[in-house]
Every structure is written in structure tokens, then in C-alpha cells.
Write a structure and sequence with these properties.
Layout (H helix, E strand, L loop, with lengths): L9 H6 L7 H8 L2 H11 L3 E4 L2 E4 L5 H11 L3 H9 L1 E2 L12 H22 L5 E6 L8 E6 L7
Antiparallel strand pairs: 1-2, 3-5, 4-5
């Protein structure tokens, strides 16, 4: 899936077995507020600064951070990449048998929302993003880390 205009999710909703292609109808009839709030936290995470690193708040753990510092020789890009990445397969139950196309669509949306969230939360820093999918990674995966300088030149 390219970084051009995303396709409408309506065909995916219908393909996945919904009685309606309208996401708002689906949510109002089958969704719940807990899932909606959890989804918003995934789509628009809070990224915190710690020792010149920018890490997803929901993934930050000091002990884990220190272990990655040691194992990467304090390589900021490697630490941020591993602590900030997400495999779309890991966000949903493993018994979900949706087509790869649906997971790839979610990853592309996530990539775009994370870019916007980082611009809003850390406007003076620059970031690199990587989207990978099968066979190069475990399903659709989004990575983010600061550029080498981290700040505009």
C-alpha cells in the first residue's frame, strides 16, 4: 500500500462482514466506549521526552529503556525504533482472520496519525518513519525514531 490517498474503509468494512459500510453505524450498534478510547490512544499516542529520546508513553519503562541503552551502545535511533514500533497483528486477538489488506490499511492510518501527533507534540524535532509488512516483518508494522540530529538544521 503506497503513501498516496488511502482507499475508503467502506469496502473493507463490507468485506469483513458488516451489515453496513458506514463506520459510524457500525460503532453505534456494535462498539463500546472502552474500545473507542483504546483505539484513540493507539491512533494518537502521547510521545514523551526522556534523556533526549522521544518514546511512546504507553511503552516507556525505565528498566526496559536502560536495557535497550546498554544493548544498543546508547544508539538513540535503535532505542526509539524498538520502543516505538507496533505490529498491527499484536493489537487484535490472534483468532481474527481478517485479510492482510485490512491490517495494512490500519498500519497506513497509524503511520499518518503518528506523524501528525509527533508534529503536534514535538514540533521542533524531526522523525523518520518506516512501514514494513510481510514478508519483511511480522505483518504490517510501523516504526518511528528521531533523525540523527533530531532537530531541524
Amino acid at each position: 500500500m503506497s503513501e498516496g490517498v488511502l482507499p475508503s474503509p467502506a469496502h473493507l468494512i463490507t468485506k469483513l462482514g458488516s451489515w453496513t459500510p458506514r463506520a459510524t453505524d457500525l460503532l453505534s450498534n456494535e462498539g463500546n466506549i472502552l474500545h473507542a478510547v483504546a483505539l484513540s490512544a493507539v491512533l494518537w499516542p502521547r510521545f514523551i521526552e526522556f534523556e533526549d529520546h522521544v518514546i511512546r508513553e504507553d511503552r516507556f519503562d525505565l528498566e526496559n529503556f536502560r536495557q535497550w541503552q546498554e544493548s544498543t551502545g546508547h544508539n538513540r535511533q535503535a532505542i526509539e525504533s524498538v520502543m516505538n514500533h507496533v505490529h498491527i497483528y499484536d493489537l487484535l486477538p490472534s483468532n481474527d482472520e481478517a485479510p492482510l489488506e485490512a491490517y495494512e490499511y490500519l498500519a497506513q492510518v497509524l503511520l499518518r496519525t503518528w506523524k501528525a501527533a509527533l508534529v503536534e507534540q514535538h514540533p521542533t524535532r524531526q522523525f523518520e518513519f518506516l512501514y514494513a509488512t510481510e514478508p519483511d516483518d511480522y505483518g504490517p508494522t510501523v516504526y518511528v525514531w528521531q533523525t540523527l540530529s533530531g532537530v531541524p538544521s
